[in-house]
Amino acid sequence: MSYEELMLRAITKADAFKYTAKPNPVVGAILEKDGEIISEGYHKLFGHRHAEINALRSAEKLKNIKFNSFSELTLICTLEPCSHIGKTGSCADAIVKSGIKRVIIGSVDPSSKVSGKGIEILRKNNIEVEVGMHQDLVAKQNRFFFYRHKNNMPFITVKIASSLDGKSHYKNNERVFISSKESREDVQLLRAEYDAILTGTNTFLNDNPRMNARVNFQVNQPEKILLSTSLGVIKNTDRIPFFQGGRVTHIGTNLLERVLPILLENDKCSILVEAGPKLANAFLKAGYVNELIIYTSQKKLGQNGVDWFKENNAIENYGFKLESSYKINTDLKEIFKRNE
Ligand SMILES: NC(=O)c1ccc[n+]([C@@H]2O[C@H](COP(=O)([O-])OP(=O)(O)OC[C@H]3O[C@@H](n4cnc5c(N)ncnc54)[C@H](OP(=O)(O)O)[C@@H]3O)[C@@H](O)[C@H]2O)c1
Q: Is 52 a catalytic residue?
């Protein structure tokens, strides 16, 4: 296999771990000799060993069987090896120590902790380094991680379910499922992708949501964030579904500019806002939203429904354009992107 084919393989196989590596990026690493794969490693679980270390350890077992010295091998890795001694030790140092002499990297790591420092360690130790092979694919598959580190902002998506007549819920808060069962299942997948789900006081009180990702595969459950000034200290949390399973953060301010830095804590890169019209519109108005996802059903709520948006053309006026749309059963799912 060529280096390019091996890079594509590492990118593709790394994707399998996107729900368990997050909020870390997914990374793949392959050690090869004369086009033959000697070993592969992936970053499978947040806080666990990095891809490069996994590949090195697997190759170690084949030394003197498939190769004699690591200097005969080339390392292909999708993201720049880390330079910091984090939870697992520096990958760049481990590569140097192994005796590898050539490394091919997909993309530079955009985080300030690494960003070029890993490559510098390799080059200083006389390792031949090539950077940029399929870097767009690596950035795309880690779009939340790249966005966060390039902008020092979380990637924020607002997700809403709308009736055909543009309503969010009934004025009297009577329970209603707006979108279909299939759309609601799609939302579970969406939740699984994000590092946190954020909501506001009224949704928390009226819907009593669990707001976890109910999927049939392993996932790092998203943190749950409640923005509420009126609720004060919440008691008896063991009886409230929202507080079960995973980390919960209660932020007691309505000032979104103060909220943003808190959203970056615990390495978070992506936030899914699942709130009612008040909080969803506040995020949109502030210009903090990157993506807007709307599930529109055939149901109408009529006069007793609360509008998602007060003005006509609100979505366009907020600076979004439709990127894709498709049917989920009888619902329509539309993804809007902010005009950059
Ligand atoms: N169709 C859907 O997709 C969908 C999704 C979610 C919810 N809902 C429905 O929406 C209803 C609630 O909607 P809602 O619009 O009344 O309330 P909401 O958006 O869920 O919550 C609004 C509350 O959040 C708090 N908040 C914190 N920061 C804020 C900010 N910067 N701007 C605005 N609010 C902020 C405020 O409470 P404090 O004064 O306590 O700070 C505010 O009253 C629920 O009944 C639920 O059924 C529908």
A: yes
- Tell me, what DSSP letter sits at residue 45? S
Atom of ligand 1 nearest to the CA of 278: 15
Cis amide bond preceding 81, omega within 30: no
User: What are the CA-CA distances from residue 214 to residues 63, 114, 184, 219, 247 (Å)?
Assistant: 43, 34, 10, 9, 16
| Sequence letter at residue 156 | I
CA 273 to chain centre: 13
Cα 275 to ligand 1 centre (Å) = 5
Which one of 32, 36, 40, 52 is the catalytic residue?
52
Question: What span, in angstroms and rounded, lies between the C-alpha atoms of 120 and 92?
Answer: 9
Taking CA atoms only, the protein residue closest to ligand 1 atom 32 is: 279
Which tokens sit at 44? 């499978």
Helix axes 117-124 and 91-98, enclosed angle (nearest 10)? 20
For each of the chain's 340 residues, which pLDDT tens digit applies?
Answer: 999 999 999 999 999 999 999 999 999 999 999 999 999 999 999 988 899 999 999 999 999 999 999 999 999 999 999 887 765 569 999 999 999 999 999 999 999 888 899 999 999 999 999 999 999 999 999 999 999 999 999 999 999 999 999 999 999 999 899 999 999 999 999 999 999 999 999 999 999 999 999 999 999 999 999 999 999 889 999 999 999 988 999 999 999 999 999 999 999 999 999 999 999 999 999 999 999 999 999 999 999 999 999 999 999 999 999 999 999 999 999 999 998 7
List residues near ligand 1 (CB under 6 A): 160-161, 168-169, 173, 178, 200-203, 206-207, 227-231, 254, 256, 274-279, 282
Residues in contact with 193: Cβ distance below 8 Å, sequence separation at least 6, in sequence order: 18, 19, 22, 270, 272
